[in-house]
Amino acid sequence: MAGFLNFPCAVFFLSLISQGRCQCHPITDIKIFQSQTGVLVQNKPQWKVTIVNDCACTQVNIKVACDGFQTVEEIDSSILAIGDDGCQINHEQPVYGYQTFNFTYSWDTQYPFMPIYSEIACS
């Protein structure tokens, strides 16, 4: 009887493990951190933005809200492309599982980047 009860428990446990391995949430698994670099560009502090894919799966087509974003430091459009519906990160290239993507900008205050879109590419 004990063996009969252990089998359903084992199946339930294994199903939880297999689902959690690549159960990603496109927007909530994108984390954004910022810090000052200590560099001044045109007398404005430089900010380093670190975007983290906090999931085992690759995420692509990442966009962040950037309405009103300003910088005196030029940013290559393949890194941060400003559009009408947000800013495209990394020129639509993937950010692999648990990897980071960085860029810098310079302005008086930190801009509150927030993820608004991404797609999960899990195999």
Please describe what this structure looks like.
The protein is of the alpha+beta class and 123 residues long. The chain has one domain: Immunoglobulin-like (Sandwich). It contains one helix and seven strands; from the N terminus they run αβββββββ. The two termini are 39 Å apart. Residues 9-20 have low confidence and may be disordered. Pfam families: TPD1_C. Residues 1-24 form the signal peptide. Keywords: Signal. One of its GO terms (biological process) is cell fate determination.
Give the rounded overall mean pLDDT. Answer: 86
| Count of helix runs | 1
CATH architecture: Sandwich
Distance between the termini: 39 Å
Portion of residues within helices? 10-25%
- Which percent band covers the strand fraction? 35-45%
InterPro entries: TPD1 (IPR040361)
Keywords: Signal
Signal peptide: 1-24
Can you describe this structure in just a few lines?
By secondary structure, this protein is of the alpha+beta class.
Q: Which tags fit this structure?
A:
signal, 4-stranded antiparallel beta sheet, single chain, elongated, 123 residues, TPD1, alpha+beta
